Amino acid sequence: MLYKQPVSVLVVIYTADHHPVEEEQGRLNKPVSSTVERFRTDTAGRRRPDLKVLLLERADHPGYWQSVTGSCEQGETLIETAIREVREETGLDASDYRLTDWQTQNVYEIYPHWRFRYPPDITHNTEHVFGLELPQVVPIQLAAREHLNFQWLAWQDAAEAVFSSSNRAAILQLPEHLNFGVEKDK
User: Fold this and answer.
1) Quick one: pLDDT band at residue 172, thresholds 50, 70, 90?
2) What separation in angstroms does the CA of 88 have from each of 70, 130, 145?
3) ∠ at Cα 136 (165, 180), nearest 5°?
4) Which residues pair with 68 in a beta bridge?
5) To the nearest whole number, what is the mean pLDDT of the chain?
6) Entry pTM
7) 28-46: per-residue pLDDT in tens?
8) Could you tell me if 32 and 24 are in contact, meaning their C-beta atoms sit under 8 angstroms apart?
9) Number of H helices, E strands in the chain
10) CA of 82: how far to CAs of 18, 33, 110, in Å?
11) Cα–Cα distance measured from residue 159 to residue 175, given in angstroms and rounded to the nearest whole number
């Protein structure tokens, strides 16, 4: 049996809503950068970036939503794994977009019912987190063996929808990785 490596990637695929500079310059009456991130105000009156996150529903566990994930193959770098997994699970070529290594690692216990996939005595996996920024929501081609459905959600809603705590934490850190300067909830 060919075992999986206990090293994996988590790729948060997202898009930030942008609008033309001319619209913003007209309101501010001063020059701004080539694009300006649009914010919306949440129910508590806080300004939040208008970010959408792609979630995939697992075929082996209907109702379980997640970002792109997958194990490294023998001899594969982390970035190669991220690009391969994005292609396999969504049909997207990650090298066409902005793929960043968030320099975040999560070590977690492998669920007992999935341990048969790993070498004997392996109980933990190290997950490396990446972000993939798309210019807008794009069509997705699901891998039918792996996923049943997909959805684009506002980042806060996506964080609530995922079953994995490390996936939730990565999505909640998305504004910080984009330097939106969003205040953390107290």
Assistant:
1) very high
2) 10, 16, 10
3) 60
4) 11
5) 83
6) 0.80
7) 333 333 333 445 555 566 5
8) yes
9) 5, 11
10) 25, 30, 20
11) 12
Q: Are 122 and 156 a contacting pair, CB within 8 Å?
A: no
Q: In the chain, what are the domains?
A: 7-177 (3.90.79.10)
Question: How large is the average pLDDT for residues 102-124?
Answer: 93
How far is residue 167 CA from its own chain's centroid? 8
Percent residues over pLDDT 70 in the chain: 77
pLDDT at residue 186, as a whole number: 33
- Cα distance between residue 102 and residue 55, in whole Å: 19
**Residue 177 in tokens:** 């990785």
**CB–CB of 159/171 below 8 Å?**
yes
Residue type, 98: R
Residue 65 pairs in a beta bridge with: 57, 162
In the chain the first and final C-alpha atoms are separated, in Å, by 49
The percent of the chain in helix, strand and coil, each rounded to the nearest 5, is 25, 35, 35
- Average pLDDT of span 58-87: 96
By three-state DSSP, how is residue 155 classified?
helix
- Are residues 67 and 86 in contact, defined by beta-carbon separation less than 8 angstroms? no
